[in-house]
Amino acid sequence: MIYFTDNDIDRLIEDDLPAGDMTTFLLDLAGKKGSISLIARNEMIACCTEEAVRLYKKVGLEIGFFVPSGTRMQPGEKLIEAHGDAAAIHIIWRTGSAMIEFASGIAGRTHQLLTAARKENPSISVAGTRKHPPFVKKMALKALMAGGGVPHRTGLSDTILIFREHLLFTGGYEQLPDVIRSLKEKMKERKIVVEAHNMEEALIAANSGADVIQMDKSQQEIFSDCAGKCRAINPNICMIAAGAINDTNAAIYAKAGADVLVTSWMYFAPPADIKAEIVPVM
């Protein structure tokens, strides 16, 4: 579960309401009753409905119905229904809808990628990078998971991932055996991931004791050959395909022997299309 604090929810409202809703105020809508329903216009995987519900409740609306994140929706199906003060409805109308559309777009694209890859390898994982747009980490990660993906790294604090850029300061790939030995002494319970750009670097990493090898922008044939040779060294090694992974090549890398596909492609999905129906309640 990705936890959104009360401050996160308040900020979403505040960002769109820095000094009140001028139009609603001038039209004197406060005190009038209405209802709002969000309805899917196309096939989608719902996401961030729980956060939208919290937005609605923050402004005093009562929730009649909502579907949980991860629910597969068909056109015409209802995601959320709420009722209450008409002014409150207009305060959260756009913010709630936009959040669900943005997150559901990511969830749908993640599912699309996972479906394509698992046709070739039913056990493959799709992992989202930390290269999501700034300031939307929680929303992006929740959407990724709603679509069946997993976070590759939630940040710099949770994994040991050695890039070529790190090795520039430690003696290069030639010194990788000493680097990995030192890391395993310091952090015995963590797996060590090493990025490689070619066969030579991957084999050095495998021979040096890396638990995971992340091949960056490797051609299918090279990746397949590399995966076989690395597994000959360590049958339990995990092989990651990363770099420009999308719906056109996910199945290719799955067939080539990838255990995990790492990508940021899902984060830049078009938003889902949602219709908001707002009606007066007498």
Characterization of this structure:
The chain is of the alpha/beta class. The chain has two domains: 119 residues, Aldehyde Oxidoreductase, domain 3 (Alpha-Beta Complex), CATH 3.90.1170; 147 residues, Aldolase class I (TIM Barrel), CATH 3.20.20.70. 40% of the residues lie in helices and 21% in strands. The strands form three sheets. A seven-stranded parallel β-sheet has the order 7-6-12-11-10-9-8. It has a four-stranded antiparallel β-sheet with strand order 3-5-1-13, with helices on one face. A two-stranded antiparallel sheet has the order 2-4. InterPro entries: Aldolase_TIM, ModD, NadC/ModD, Nicotinate_pribotase-like_C, Quinolinate_PRibosylTase_N_sf, Quinolinate_PRibosylTrfase_C, Quinolinate_PRibosylTrfase_N. GO terms for molecular function: nicotinate-nucleotide diphosphorylase (carboxylating) activity. Pathway: Cofactor biosynthesis; NAD(+) biosynthesis; nicotinate D-ribonucleotide from quinolinate: step 1/1. Keywords: Glycosyltransferase, Pyridine nucleotide biosynthesis, Transferase.
Considering the chains and any ligands shown, give keywords for the structure.
four-stranded antiparallel beta sheet, seven-stranded parallel beta sheet, TIM Barrel, 13 strands, alpha/beta, 21% strand, 40% helix, Aldehyde Oxidoreductase, domain 3, 282 residues
Distance between the termini: 39 Å
Q: Please report the total strand number as a whole number.
A: 13
Shape: elongated
- Oligomer classification: single chain
Q: Could you name the CATH class of the largest domain? A: Alpha Beta
Within CATH, the superfamily of the largest domain carries the name Aldolase class I
The poorly predicted ranges are none
CATH topology of the largest domain: TIM Barrel
The secondary structure category is alpha/beta
Instruction: Summarize the helix and strand pattern as letters.
Output: HHEEHEEEHEHEEHHEHEHEHEE
